[in-house]
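User: Now give one protein:

AI:
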Amino acid sequence: SQTRSKIAELTARQQQLIAQKLASLNISRSSSSAGRCDSDLTNGRDPGFSPKFAFFTYGVPNRVGLNQYGAKGRAAFQGYEDILRAYYDNINFETRDNINIKVQGYGEMPIETYLLGIKEMPEDWPMEALKSQVIAARSYALAYTNNGAGEICTTESCQVYSQPEKTGQWRTAVQETAGRVMTQGGNPIKAWYSSTHGGYTFSTGEIGWSGTSWTKHANDFDGSVSSFSDLNSRAYDRDSPWFYCDWGSRSQYNKTAWLKSEELADIVNTILLAKVDSSVREHLYQPDNPPAGTDNWNSDKVRQELRNRGQKPFNSINNSSVSADFSSGRVSSVSFSGDSGDISFSLSEFKDWFNLRAPANIQIVGPLFNVEKR
């Protein structure tokens, strides 16, 4: 029908709210963080209802540059230069002097000393992964400070730094790569990195940042992948606690992110209503926490408004499935079957409206995800 061919787009206000909702999850970028995914497939918690549906995202939101858990997987057979070339494009390796840089709250120090305080990767990881991280951190610090002219912060907004300095394997990795940086056009690159990319690395332009010539889109798995099960067994970062996660939780359902059949039906109905009448979008925020001053419509009202427009709403969803393009690492469509028939949505349409309408802080945080029903 014409309704189903239209694209339901969010308003600017709704896009801003989704960004705030994502930020509230506080998903760590660093593999050293204690803030791991609490997967509802493995935590043993029952929400107390059935059937139950949850959407599991592959990887963390910032999937650019060095994939830390991917480097750990690759270190079994690759050296640090090959590892870094897997994640960055058109780079050279050069050796730079041990210049002083300014570190927020700590004053000036030689960059090699600064690197001893970087807390971005567990120290018991393979040496080639540690060396990859050291070179990424050194390159990032030089690029961020413009070769020492500026100051670098000490949080995940820049790089995690603290004292005391590390000893052991990390210190060895710093010393054995002394001065080594990645450059492009003679300049150190801003070598972004994060804990887990979910089998695919993206360029900055693909995640909504400004485009850069040293980041790239790349598959990060062994062999070929044509299914979710292939990805689960072949991705180099598959052992990461952030690899496959349903983000968010509700205390009233045993701190899980499971959704009821009728809650999933409400999300589907919300998208259908936005497709048939874009003028009602500002009534379609999450029912349990709408913005102040909003005339927000609950699930009953959304169903009624669909009927008023000649549409047949869903009361329940029986099954859901996800189709993905495994050559690019993106969902292509999300399908549902329920008491009102079958329907499918595109990646951006479903993900955006799910993240707006889903209760509490439940979110899909990347372009590749799957649905689980129990």
